[in-house]
Amino acid sequence: MQSIMMQVMDKGRFQKPAATLSLMAGQTVELRCKGNKIGWSYPAYLDTFKDSRLSVKQHERYGQLTLVNSTSADTGEFSCWAQLCNGYICRRDEAKTGSTYILFTEKGELFVPSPSYFDVVYLNPDRQAVVPCRVTVLSAKVTLHREFPAKEIPANGTDIIYDMKRGFVYLQPHSEHQGVVYCRAEAGGKSQISVKYHLLYVEVPSGPPSTTILASSNKVKGGDDVSVLCTVLGEPDVEVEFRWIFPGQKDERPVTIQDTWRLIHRGLGHTTRISQSVITVEDFETIDAGYYICTAQNLQGQTTVATTVEFS
């Protein structure tokens, strides 16, 4: 497959960029890809801050990406592809793509800087987990260390591998991997330590929300109050939205609905997010009797549960 990407060098020369490029921070990078409708992807960091140092333009025959005043935080994959469009609907032309991984080396920075001093990495038994310590120097030797008890964690290639473009990858995370870790890089006689990463094991399977529903009472006297509680146990970083259908809805019956969430630690450092929605009906009347239906939704789907509340 032929790459459509070129790097613009000084004095207007062009060259095909290597799969991995090392540049000094501060340099300007200009990439061009042949085609009249080019799509681009570049390190997420540049998107996060809607960075004015980056410009992407489409010319008649090529797309152009320019990055000025580069820093070590810009290290990552830059790629482009031709788009095949039919009206407004475009898809990627897999035969016409190009990419290069650029390391921007900055004095005193062996690691791609992290926005925080401390990061949480969730370990799910059913998918890879990544400790994202990436380097800015191609020749750097990187090791992974547990903080307590202090020891090096071997990246043996079966359980844990080091991938320069991602970091340390846990291929099959399990609960013994939990704890606080950091990375260490050595290059040219200098060594540096990364930020700390707190690895938390997540017990819940991913998928649509695992939901339960409970009424404070299923038989309610007239004039009493009743609450119905909808609870989801899920992954710590997955948000849940709730929707309710209730008998008094068509009569615009006033109810209060309160949504909350918190993280709970269940034995052995398992971390679970508990999301709850409570619907409360005051002064119960006959129109309030019937099905209370809760729908919980996350990015992977939705689950609907119901309970009946009768007038006694």
What would you say this structure looks like, in words?
There is one protein chain. The protein has 312 residues and is mainly β. The chain contains 1 helix and 25 strands. The strands form 6 sheets. Strands 2-1-4-7-6 form a 5-stranded antiparallel beta sheet, with no helix packed on it. β14 and β15 (167-170) form a beta hairpin. The mean pLDDT is 88. Its main location: secreted. It is found in: Secreted.
Brief overview:
It is found in: Secreted. With 312 residues, the protein is mostly beta strands.
Helix content: under 10%
Major sheet: order of its strands? Answer: 2-1-4-7-6
Coarse shape: extended
CATH level-4 homologous superfamily of the largest domain: Immunoglobulins
Instruction: Based on the coordinates given, report the CATH architecture of the largest domain.
Output: Sandwich
The CA-CA distance between the termini, in Å, is: 74 Å
Indicate the radius of gyration in whole angstroms.
27 Å
Subunit structure: Forms a complex composed of PDGFRL, TNK2 and GRB2.
Pfam families: Ig_3, VEGFR-1-like_Ig-like
Keywords: Disulfide bond, Glycoprotein, Immunoglobulin domain, Repeat, Secreted, Signal
Subcellular location: Secreted
